């Protein structure tokens, strides 16, 4: 029996999965995020966390590193060759062999594509758009935050919702349903109390606070609130630009071109209106046919698909 390991390392959590020869997940464990950019110790700290996760998985499976035929990792923050080299060296020093590392956006493509090529667009904690074409060429766009003009991720949405509410309460620029929803949710009577809610970002309630702002956005946008729809248009426009750039740069011979949507914004929230907007804009920009698919399996499945496509 041969065994394989897949690792989906994001900014907030990491999944380690043990697979058998039939691509079945035999065992899975989860740990903290492993993006080196989020840690003061950078690659040292992130690689140590990865090794701990792998060790825990192997211990629970009663296996040794030598029992694993191949390990493939999709890691957030591995965007450039020097980052790849640094992480690979750290993991080799732990004794890991027969492994490969990619940016986590690429395993989304491999997890959801019906063939070996597709475009993957992820909006969760962050934003990235990755593609693998018919010749195996890989390209990553976005993923650098404000430096690459990333929009549509959870933090971007939360910030823009807060901005819109601030503009109504303090600058009297417009009215938006988002303000009403927020004030009702937090029981706010005076506008100064609204500013006080930012204290949540410095507490354990930070994630819940951000999720509340995101929920308010989708509720308002799906109710056709103009301010929320304006934000949704920006999200759809940027997504279409990224997807179209992949289509123009890489080689996709067959149509429709698959676009795999992943991340909580795309797959866990009522985002159908936004996805339809993005699909329409993408077709208009490229004059090609696309099919947009929400990822329905864990991204770590892309690791075992990739292993069997290229490494076994």
Observed structural traits:
globular; Nucleotidyltransferase, domain 5; 312 residues; 2 domains; alpha/beta; 5-stranded mixed β-sheet
CATH architecture of the largest domain: 2-Layer Sandwich
Order of helices and strands: EEEHEHEHEEEHHHHHEHHEH
Percentage of β-strand residues: 15-25%
Main sheet overview: 5 strands, mixed
Q: How would you state the average pLDDT, rounded?
A: 95
Question: What name does CATH use for the topology of the largest domain?
Answer: Nucleotidyltransferase, domain 5
- Tell me the name of the CATH homologous superfamily of the largest domain: ATPase, nucleotide binding domain
Low-confidence stretches: none
Layout of strands and helices, then pairs:
Layout: E1 3-9, E2 13-19, E3 25-32, H1 42-61, E4 68-75, H2 81-94, E5 99-102, H3 104-112, E6 118-123, E7 127-132, E8 138-141, H4 154-171, H5 177-186, H6 191-196, H7 206-222, H8 226-249, E9 257-262, H9 264-267, H10 272-286, E10 290-294, H11 301-310
Parallel strand pairs: 1-4, 4-5, 6-9, 9-10
Antiparallel strand pairs: 1-2, 2-3, 6-7, 7-8
Helix pairs in contact: 1-2, 3-11, 4-7, 5-7, 7-8, 8-10
């Amino acid at each position: 029996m041969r065994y394989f390991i897949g690792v989906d390392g994001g900014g907030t959590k990491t999944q380690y999965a043990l697979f058998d020869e039939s691509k079945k997940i035999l065992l899975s464990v989860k740990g903290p995020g492993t993006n080196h950019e989020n840690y003061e110790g950078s690659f040292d700290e992130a690689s140590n966390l990865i090794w701990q996760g792998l060790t825990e998985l192997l211990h629970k499976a009663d296996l040794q590193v030598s029992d694993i035929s191949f390990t493939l990792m999709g890691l957030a923050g591995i965007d450039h060759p020097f980052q790849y080299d640094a992480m690979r060296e750290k993991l080799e020093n732990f004794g890991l062999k027969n492994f490969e590392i990619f940016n986590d956006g690429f395993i989304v493509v491999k997890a959801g594509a019906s063939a070996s090529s597709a475009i993957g667009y992820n909006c969760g904690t962050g934003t990235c758009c990755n593609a693998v074409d018919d010749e195996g060429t890989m390209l990553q766009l976005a993923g650098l935050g404000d430096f690459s003009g990333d929009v549509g991720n959870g933090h971007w949405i939360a910030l823009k919702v807060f901005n819109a509410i601030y503009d109504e309460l303090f600058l009297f620029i417009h009215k938006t349903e988002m303000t009403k929803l927020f004030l009702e949710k937090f029981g706010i009577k005076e506008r100064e109390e609204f500013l006080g809610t930012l204290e949540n970002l410095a507490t354990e309630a930070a994630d819940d606070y951000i999720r509340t702002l995101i929920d308010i956005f989708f509720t308002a946008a799906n109710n056709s609130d103009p301010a929320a729809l304006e934000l949704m248009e920006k999200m759809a426009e940027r997504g279409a630009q990224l997807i179209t750039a992949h289509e123009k740069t890489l080689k996709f011979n067959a149509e429709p071109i698959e676009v795999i949507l992943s991340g909580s914004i795309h797959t866990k929230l009522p985002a159908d209106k936004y996805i339809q907007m993005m699909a329409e804009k993408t077709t208009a920009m490229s004059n090609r046919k696309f099919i947009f698919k929400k990822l329905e399996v864990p991204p770590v499945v892309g690791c075992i698909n990739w292993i069997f496509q290229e490494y076994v």
